[in-house]
Amino acid sequence: WYSVMQTLQVDSVQRWMEDLRHMTEVECMCVLQAKPIGVEEDSQQGELIIGSGLGAGDHVARNNLQILLRRALVVSTELGKMFQRLEKGRWQRVHSTAVRANCHVRSLVHEYSAARSTPPEMQKYETSLLEKCMELTNITERCLHTDDEYFLKSMREAIHEILTDVSDSFSNMIDMALANEIRVCTAVLIKQIESSDNVHIIGSAISNLLSLTQDGPQLCSIIAKEGAIVALFKICRQDRFKELYAHALRTVASICCVEEGINQLDKVDGILCLADILTDENSVEAARAEAAAVVAQITSPHHTSTQHLASFLESMHDIVTSLIKLCESASCGEVFLLASAALANITFFDSMACEILLQLNAIHILLQACKDKQRVDTPYSKDQVVTILANLSVLEQCATEVLQEQGTERLLLLLGEKPTSPSPSEGAACERVQQKAAVTLARLSRDPDVAQTAIQLKAVPRLIELCRSPTERNNSDSVLVACLAALRRLAAGCPDSIEPADHQQLIKPRLVDSFLLCSNMEESFV
């Protein structure tokens, strides 16, 4: 839940003004605790003037979640202050912070219990938390009335232990409360999606559901279990809601970052629906792109479960055909990225996909796309292209097509891929591009014609440079290993292409010895 709360800290001034109502003095809070919150008579559906309470009802379901997060942020801030002040031995402030934290926790528990029926498993955390907060308040008060250093030192250790327990209990309670709120919010939104015929109402509900999925895998799992995937695919199977397909599929892709989402998709034959959208010539590009995003998500190598792939294989030919067509016709880089990412993942788990792609002239389409800045405009897109080429290169007939399309030249250009910004993710993408380009070159160089072409295009000096210069490969060990392998493959076919000194250090020793030599090189060695 901590990562969820970080998203609240966008506009500092606005957040401060909204949180003022939670940051009241303890004395005032105690007086106001029992006071009712006023409601304007003409306000729509009795909307609260001051949204500081955890209200009940559909119209405040999402507000409850935000209020819970803000309250949790206040408490976690106070607990963080306590840890800092305890280390510095500021006992007066430690006690006052403990009193404030105790008050905020009790207020949160009281308001949440009043708004929702608290689950039994959450009640035990509430009881334990309230007891520990009171214990924390009492023990810190004892430290105000003594100057005995030995006593204070022992108390510091005891308080630190209790404070750690309080923090853990609070985190567990908030996790459960958040899960409960997400269930309520999701149920409300799914009901709107399933029961309404109004495109705008359904679209708004899908938008809110999508925003919930951005708060982490744990929430996505809850959303999937509540039946969101089922509701969204019902939308995607009705022609009257075609304008909502892209929006619904984007939400499906977000939910499918967890196994539960993929399992739900498989149960409702979601793959058949995706295939229908991808192959429908009347589907708008945005819908097909988002369908490709779902395919990329469910075929990701990071997923441990592969049960859903059995039904995927039945539609694979149609899906692969549609995806390579989408790569060819993509109007922008984002669409190309989604389609190529899906293809890259598919080529990992079934060799038949590689054969289908070769039959569909995929090498020509992908290499032509690399020349089009409108489609392939980032290292991320190039990463997908070179991944597909690397997986296709295990097939013997691939080498001939690569030569025909001047693919060797493209691979050498990809070996020179460098980040244009200090972004770590972009740097990592460039490393993957270099590594996979070297792997593809090594595989294709089994063909003497490819090896000869690569040597003529001065692939050897570039590979040697990547091996010897850590900065050229962004200090990446995986790039180094791939380049050493490619270099050795070229040297095996044409020994004269390697200088004696390079041969002695990069080719003759065992691969591991050459790797250790290059990975420990200083830049001045070049």
List keywords for this structure.
mainly alpha; disordered N terminus; Leucine-rich Repeat Variant; Four Helix Bundle (Hemerythrin (Met), subunit A)
Describe this structure in words.
It holds the Pfam family Insc_C. Helix content is 72%, strand content 0%. It is an all-alpha fold. The protein starts with a helix and ends in a 7-residue tail after the last helix. The chain is flat and about 85 Å long. The protein contains 28 helices and no strands. Among the domains are: 123 residues, Four Helix Bundle (Hemerythrin (Met), subunit A) (Up-down Bundle), CATH 1.20.120; 165 residues, Leucine-rich Repeat Variant (Alpha Horseshoe). Helix 4 runs antiparallel to helix 5, helix 11 packs parallel to helix 14 and helix 26 crosses helix 28.
What's the helix and strand layout?
Elements: H1 2-6, H2 12-19, H3 26-32, H4 61-88, H5 91-115, H6 120-142, H7 149-195, H8 199-213, H9 217-225, H10 228-236, H11 245-255, H12 259-267, H13 270-279, H14 285-298, H15 309-314, H16 316-329, H17 333-349, H18 351-359, H19 362-370, H20 379-392, H21 398-404, H22 407-415, H23 424-444, H24 448-456, H25 459-468, H26 477-493, H27 500-507, H28 511-519
Helix pairs in contact: 4-5, 4-7, 5-6, 6-7, 7-8, 7-9, 7-10, 8-11, 9-12, 10-11, 11-14, 13-14, 13-16, 14-17, 16-17, 17-18, 17-20, 20-23, 22-23, 23-26, 25-26, 26-28
InterPro entries: ARM-like, ARM-type_fold, Armadillo, Insc_C, INSC_LBD, INSC_LBD_sf, Inscuteable
Domain Protein inscuteable homologue LGN-binding: 8-53
Protein name: INSC spindle orientation adaptor protein
